[in-house]
Write a structure and sequence with these properties.
The complex is a heterotrimer of chains A (980), B (189) and C (95).
Chain A: E1 18-22, E2 25-29, H1 35-41, E3 48-49, E4 56-57, E5 70-73, E6 80-84, E7 94-98, H2 112-115, H3 124-128, H4 135-147, E8 161-174, H5 178-189, E9 194-197, E10 213-214, E11 217-218, H6 219-232, E12 236-239, E13 242-248, E14 252-258, E15 270-284, E16 288-290, E17 303-305, H7 306-316, E18 323-328, H8 332-342, E19 346-352, E20 367-369, E21 373-377, E22 384-387, E23 392-394, E24 397-401, E25 404-406, H9 409-412, E26 419-421, E27 426-428, E28 437-439, H10 449-466, E29 500-502, E30 507-508, H11 509-517, H12 523-530, H13 543-554, H14 558-561, H15 575-579, E31 591-592, H16 596-601, E32 605-609, E33 612-617, H17 626-639, E34 642-645, E35 650-655, H18 659-666, E36 679-685, E37 691-701, E38 704-709, H19 714-728, E39 735-738, E40 743-749, H20 753-758, E41 775-780, E42 784-789, E43 798-804, H21 808-818, E44 825-826, H22 829-839, E45 885-892, E46 904-906, E47 919-927, E48 932-940, E49 949-954, E50 959-966, H23 976-979
Parallel strand pairs in A: 1-7, 8-9, 8-15, 9-12, 15-28, 17-24, 18-19, 18-24, 19-20, 31-33, 34-44
Antiparallel strand pairs in A: 1-2, 3-4, 5-6, 5-7, 10-11, 13-14, 14-15, 16-25, 21-22, 22-23, 26-27, 29-30, 32-33, 34-40, 35-38, 35-39, 36-37, 37-38, 40-43, 41-42, 42-43, 45-48, 45-50, 46-49, 47-48, 49-50
Chain B: E1 16-19, E2 22-26, E3 30-36, H1 42-53, E4 63-65, E5 72-77, E6 80-86, H2 92-100, E7 105-108, E8 113-119, H3 123-127, E9 145-150, E10 153-161, E11 164-170, H4 174-188
Chain C: E1 2-5, E2 9-12, E3 17-21, H1 35-44, E4 52-58, E5 66-72, E6 78-83, H2 84-90
Classes of the chains: A alpha+beta (980), B alpha+beta (189), C alpha+beta (95).
């Protein structure tokens, strides 16, 4: 017979069967089942092995707090370890495997750890690792690593898709149990914009797990009707399968919505969505989690929480046992006995630790009051229990209730501390958990259904009024009276066997005692020393009993002992969900230059420069090595003409009556005298005197400039300029806007650049009409407005021509077409780099955030005759020492040798150490023009050492080259070419 | 010179696609220029906008005018606006210059931005995946504009109608931006 | 965090970048006889209070306004947000 433990009732669809497998064994369940309920229905009580001692373990809870029933879900790359069977929604074809055993669940060799438990007590690894030191990495770590962890990663890339999103609401209701549903309904009917979120696929919370009725209908029916109404309201969003896992500043919440986890296939759609929720107000209705009592052998399979046992019965029609006993210290446990008896199942006894509870059970069930369970028996499932009076009862399920702990984690994420409420023997949220956050229902210590419904409704009405809505007229639903009495009871002291507290981490009462004895008494120390409350369940069923035991050991109150700090996430969140779409190629956006398509068609090799993709070089047929392409591009440019897309440079349009004054203050060199129609090189310093950025600024009109920045600093310079404009000199009339993306800009360099451009530019660009450092508006191809700048990075006669960026691709093709007669070449960033090193221009390697204008050989540019950023502090003595680093050129004495960037300079014969370090080589290249390797670098007192020789040592590459110090201008030091 | 010709190509090749419940189109005919108010001279600029276009200059986050009744003016920051024109002809800065003259500092922005129009009953649902701004039509009413961040990309979003938004993002990352919006639509359908 | 922009209303802190203490507005006079010392102090010396702090934020992915945000560094409560330009003028810049 399949599903031997399936009985009548429940909220499942019995008309449909779902096939699934557990450890390869085929089973069936129904839509509406969780994996846990389906396993129990099929009689599978043993579901996993414990973390440390490999003890056989079964399903302990019916919710997200589950410590034991962790499985490997799905196969291949989709496999997710440590999936809690109690929240996995059953689907056709589901495949699950149990974890943490060798070779099998039934026969686990690692169970030998259980016999070794005296040596594996709390803190064993701290103690073990003390000696001998040489064993740390060779023995202990490999052994511990091999046995640590529960599930196994697939080691395959995650094939699933994830997404993120943003939600906004007036009121976020967290939890769709009786309190949450009542609140959402009240606020929603009043017109408040509500989001209600629940981790379950079925709204209702405990209403679906209990047998209580509301207004004469089953609680689950009432919940379904509420949810249906909420779904129908335009102003309410009722979100299922959504866990609000974190509360952050100013009403921001993090939530995960599971979109396809309940389906066999996600069909290319996101599996989960990470939502950022912005809520004006929030209402935490997260209910409470039942906790255990520690007694001997309380970890045996089918010892489960009483609320879970009746939950499986009421919601899923699954009898966890045919002969059950209840062990409780509070009234709620009695409901399990009542529900089982009503279902016609055998209830062996209700064992209540209290002598005189004010609650009554089903008439024909034995009540054993003032007694305790001291021991259990059974290997793969519980078979009997022994009571404090020696009575032994044979049972196949023991339902335990140690009371309920409010799920107040979200109220503590912003460091609010909980308060101990003696009435319910539980921590409840402290006052004012956060501005705009309220609590209602069981999370607030309201442990009766009537109390939850009332509190929820009041909170919902309260929110409506706060948002200026008329309070809706609502009647309180009618429910039966119930008790929620409790007398705290944590630990059966007379038990001789191990009394388990944290099932997931195998922490026992003895471990807490050991922790206390060894001085780890604060709850935070207790957690770290014993691992209590760590891992996937964060000790939801175990923490309060453990700290209550610690409180009794230290002789302080539970309140004073306190809880550990709760941090997000409330339940585990996949890394993939946090990454969202930002994986692989989508890790960050890509910026393309306007001529990208042309370059791509031409076979360019691209390089990432920040977010930009830039052409690095353009190989032609027959070239097998990048150097061949780059050398050819350099030679062709210097001999005739080359074209390079330089759009990536930042471009900032600057206008205003005070633009001139503003530029004079942000640049270290003078800009006051720059004439209209002229460009000037500008050096920007940081306020501390370190070189920040460089570029050119062109004066297009009296009050109109366009500045270029380096590619890397475009955003930072703009930010800095806005700071200067708004905060430092708010009186100036100056306005900034970025035009980086608006203009496609091309360097046209080489002796034939003028001849080439003359074919395209309407205006006269002769040397006389358009000299070196001229700029102006031009007309291209007779119709397109462009800008022309006579500037040169390569050291050749050169221009930069700009066109509106939609014309950029066409412009590149047109330049090449016009350049055909000159054998024009496109060149990439490598050739650009080679030519600027030949010319001795500093770039990012030199402007590295550590170098000053003086270091760069630009010291005289820093004006001390005006107020500008950085000039005062660049006067500091230490930055002006006579032997300061200077940017110089370097060439190998043996011209056949190759310099490498990153090498450090040493005098011949001196040890290669920090004391003797004289500087470093920042850029190196093969100069096809000179026919040997060249470099730029910083060396102490460099300007006075021309002709000297140093060792350029590169221990990373195992290379040492004797280099000669030369002028950084390898080519045309007088600058005749660019003025020609 | 006649043998050489330059042609403008739309950043997304005139992308247009109708999904089930969402339309996504590259707006290829938008011309955009920014204008800034000279310090201490808002009255002249306001008067010029009033006489030239018959509109009040909007506060940041608001708009006035319309594309059909040129121009649409978006309030971008305390002293800066964007003026949007529909149509292929002429340059936005020239058009602005002819009305505002020297009362404003004008910068052509036409080629800085790629423009996508997203519309349809599911447009908002799709944007929910990338847009941090609350697009509730009662709050982000038609005519509202905001500048924000979507999938790591700066973006200007303008509510053109009840279920219609104009998105402007930097033209160099046009493909990434289109991908972000397309993926959002794919993910909700 | 959410910063309540004085012109645009509440916006996610992700749209902003942070600079630091509002005292960065008080850039010393370059002609001061003790300019070097004053610039040194301006650049390097800052209070780091646990509690109320006036600090500079830049609405980079928004309207490009620099803001002065008064924030409690312990609770993250934002008590006041001003346009930095106005704050700077009030602090005596621009004279």
């Amino acid at each position: 017979m399949t599903q031997p433990n399936r009985v009548t009732g429940g909220l499942i669809n019995r008309d449909a069967a779902l096939g699934f497998s557990f450890n390869g064994k085929s089973m069936t369940g129904h839509p509406g089942d969780t994996l846990a309920s389906a396993l129990l229905a099929n009689g599978q009580k043993l579901v996993g092995r414990s973390f440390k001692y490999h003890r056989p373990r079964g399903i302990f809870t019916a919710g997200s707090e589950e410590p034991n029933a962790l499985v490997q879900l799905r196969r291949g790359g989709h496999c997710e370890p440590n999936s809690r069977a109690t929240v996995v929604e059953l689907f056709e074809g589901l495949a699950a495997e149990s974890q943490n055993h060798r070779p099998s669940l039934e026969f686990d060799l690692m169970a030998v750890n259980d016999l070794l438990s005296p040596f594996l007590s709390a803190g064993f690894y701290y103690k073990t690792f003390m000696w001998p030191k040489r064993f740390w990495e060779r023995v202990y770590e490999p052994v511990i690593r091999a046995s640590a962890g529960l599930g196994k990663l697939s080691m395959l890339a995650d094939p699933d898709q994830y997404d993120k999103g943003f939600l906004h609401c007036d009121l976020l209701v967290i939890g769709a149990g009786p309190a949450g549903l009542s609140a959402a309904l009240a606020a929603g009917r009043a017109g408040v914009r509500v989001i209600i979120a629940d981790e379950d696929f079925l709204p209702g919370g405990r209403l679906n797990l209990e047998s209580q009725s509301i207004d004469g209908v089953a609680g689950s029916e009432w919940a379904a009707a509420c949810a249906a109404e909420l779904d129908s309201l335009d102003n309410v969003r009722c979100m299922r399968r959504m866990t609000v896992f974190g509360a952050y500043d100013h009403g921001i919440f993090g939530a995960v919505e599971r979109k396809t986890d309940h389906l066999a296939e996600s069909a290319g759609k996101p599996r989960q969505i990470l939502w950022r929720i912005y809520a004006q107000r929030s209402l935490v209705c997260t209910g409470a989690t039942e906790r255990a009592i520690a007694f001997g052998g309380n970890d045996r399979p089918n010892v489960m929480l009483a609320g879970a046992a009746r939950g499986f019965l009421n919601r899923f029609g699954v009898a966890a046992g045919r002969r059950i006993a209840v062990f409780t210290n509070n009234d709620s446990g009695w409901r399990t006995a009542a529900d089982f008896a009503k279902a016609g199942l055998d209830v062996a006894a209700i064992i209540d630790t209290r002598e005189t509870p004010r609650v009554s059970g089903p008439g024909d069930v034995t009540n054993l009051l003032g007694r305790r369970v001291v021991a259990t028996s059974g290997r793969k499932s519980i078979r009997s229990i022994t009571l404090s009076d020696g009575l032994r009862l044979s049972v196949d399920c023991l339902a335990v209730s140690g009371g309920w702990s409010p799920n107040l984690q979200l109220t503590c994420h912003k460091r609010n501390r909980p308060r101990w409420e003696e009435r319910v023997a539980a921590f409840v949220p402290g006052s004012d958990p956060d501005r705009g956050m309220r609590v209602a229902g069981a999370v607030d210590g309201q442990f009766t259904l009537a109390g939850c419904l009332r509190a929820g409704q009041e909170a919902g009405i309260g929110a409506a009024v706060e948002f200026g809505r008329a309070a809706p007229a609502l009647e309180l639903p009618r429910v039966e009276a119930e008790g929620c009495g409790i007398t705290p009871f944590w630990h059966v002291a007379e038990s001789r066997g191990r009394c388990w507290l944290d099932l997931q981490n195998d922490v026992t009462v003895k471990d807490v005692e050991l922790s206390h004895r060894e001085g780890f008494k604060s709850v935070e120390h207790l957690k770290r020393y014993t691992t209590l409350g760590m891992a996937t369940d964060q000790g939801k069923t175990a923490n309060v009993p453990a700290l209550a035991i610690m409180a009794s050991l230290t002789g302080t109150s539970i309140e004073k002992t306190g809880t550990t700090i709760y941090r997000p996430p409330y339940t585990p969140v996949s890394i993939g969900t946090l990454a969202g779409r930002s994986r692989g190629r989508e890790f960050r956006p890509t910026r393309l230059t306007p001529s990208h398509e042309w370059a791509h068609a031409r076979g360019a090799v691209f390089v990432e420069a920040g977010n930009w993709l830039r052409a690095q070089w353009f190989p032609i047929e027959g070239e097998t090595h990048w150097r061949q392409s780059v050398d050819r591009e350099v030679i062709a440019t210097r001999r005739s003409v080359g074209i390079c897309d330089v759009t990536t440079l930042g471009k900032i349009d600057i206008q205003g009556r005070d633009a001139n004054l503003f530029l004079n203050r942000v640049y270290a060199n003078g800009f006051a005298t720059l004439a209209v129609g002229r460009v000037r090189y500008g050096l920007m310093l940081r306020e501390d005197g370190i070189a920040y950025d460089d570029g050119t600024t062109a004066r297009l009109g009296d009050n109109h400039y366009v500045m270029t920045t380096t590619t890397a600093n475009a955003v930072l310079v703009f930010r800095q300029l806005e700071f200067a404009r708004q905060c430092l000199w708010p009186e100036l009339d100056v306005h900034l806007i970025s035009v980086t993306d608006g203009w496609a800009q091309f360097a046209v360099a080489g002796p034939n650049s003028r001849a080439l451009l003359s074919k395209l530019v309407t205006e006269d660009i002769s040397n006389h009409a358009f000299p070196f450092m001229a700029c102006g508006d031009v007309t291209l191809c007779g119709k397109v407005p462009g800008r022309l700048f006579r500037i040169s990075f390569s050291g050749e006669l050169a221009y930069e021509v700009a066109v509106p960026s939609r014309y950029g691709n066409s412009m590149m093709a047109t330049l090449m077409q016009a350049g055909e007669e000159f054998d024009a070449v496109p060149y990439g960033t490598e050739a650009l780099g080679v030519m600027r090193i030949e010319k001795g221009h500093a770039a990012g390697n030199e402007l590295n955030g550590h170098t000053t204008a003086l270091n760069l050989g630009l010291g005289r540019m820093v004006s001390q005759k005006k107020d500008c950023i950085g000039n005062v502090l660049s006067r500091r003595e230490e930055m002006n020492s006579p032997d300061a680093l200077r940017l110089m050129g370097f060439r190998p004495v043996d011209r056949g040798e190759e310099l490498s960037a990153g090498a450090h300079f040493f005098a011949k014969g001196e040890a290669r150490n920090m004391q003797n370090d004289q500087g470093w080589l920042s850029s190196a290249a093969w100069s096809p023009i000179l026919g040997h390797s060249i470099g730029l670098g910083f060396i102490r007192d460099g300007a006075n050492r021309i002709g000297g020789e140093v060792i350029a040592a590169d221990p990373l590459r195992g290379r040492e080259v004797t280099a000669e110090i030369v002028s950084p201008h390898f080519l045309d030091p007088e600058g005749e070419r660019l003025r020609g | 010179m006649a043998e050489f010709n330059l042609t403008a190509e739309p950043f997304l090749k005139g992308y247009h696609r109708q999904f089930d419940g969402v339309g996504l189109v590259e707006a290829v005919d938008l011309r955009i220029a920014s204008f800034a108010c000279p310090a201490g001279a808002p009255a002249q600029l306001e008067a010029q906008a009033k006489t030239g276009w018959g509109i009040e200059l909007p506060a940041p986050g608001a708009s006035s005018g319309s594309l059909s009744n040129q121009p649409l003016v978006l309030g971008m920051s305390p002293d800066q606006w964007f003026a949007l024109f529909a149509g292929q002809n002429g340059y936005a800065n020239d058009k602005l210059l002819s009305v505002l003259g020297a009362t404003a500092y004008i910068t052509d922005q036409t080629h800085n931005w790629v423009a996508l129009k997203i519309s349809g009953k599911l447009a908002r649902t799709a944007l929910e995946r990338i847009c941090p701004i609350d697009l509730d039509p009662n709050r982000f009413v038609p005519g509202t504009v905001a500048r924000t961040l979507m999938e790591h990309l700066g973006c200007i979003i303008f509510a053109a109608g009840e279920d219609e938004y104009l998105l402007l993002s930097a033209s160099s990352s046009a493909n990434s931006f289109l991908h972000a919006v397309e993926q959002s639509i794919h993910n909700i359908l | 965090m959410i910063i309540n922009h004085p012109l645009l209303g509440p916006r996610d802190a992700a749209e902003f970048t942070y600079l630091g203490d509002v005292s960065l507005i008080n850039r010393p006079d370059w002609k001061d006889a003790e300019a070097e010392r004053k610039f040194h102090d301006y650049l390097y010396l800052r209070d780091n209070p646990a509690g109320e702090h006036r600090e500079l934020w830049y609405h980079e992915q928004g309207d490009r306004s620099w803001l002065v945000v008064t924030r409690d560094t312990v609770t993250h409560e934002v008590k006041r947000v001003e346009l930095a330009r106005e704050a700077a003028l009030a602090m005596g810049r621009g004279k």
